[in-house]
Design goal:
Largest sheet: none
Number of helices: 5
Structural class: mainly alpha
Radius of gyration: 13 Å
Distance between the termini: 16 Å
Shape: globular
Strand content: under 5%
Length: about 100
Amino acid sequence: MSVPAAEHTEHSVESLSSWLADRIALYLQRSPSEISPSVPLAEYGLDSVAALSLCGDIEEDFDLVLEPTVAWDYPTVEALAGHLAEELRAIGGEAR
């Protein structure tokens, strides 16, 4: 009956993409509008330290346990947001 589990069913790919772009922009000291959903994160200069930090933020904010290679397995904001949406639906149980 935790509130975060209920929130998991509310996350769309679009909202996750926005969250990811904001977070990545922070790490790279850029504006979120500069982060295109279809450009590989490595092209922006996302390094392993920032990728691990991103993974930690995802785990903390969404209560997901991810492999540290998630930013390379899903190398764009678009791909990563889609993966997160699937993971959140899987742990959310009964989606609305």
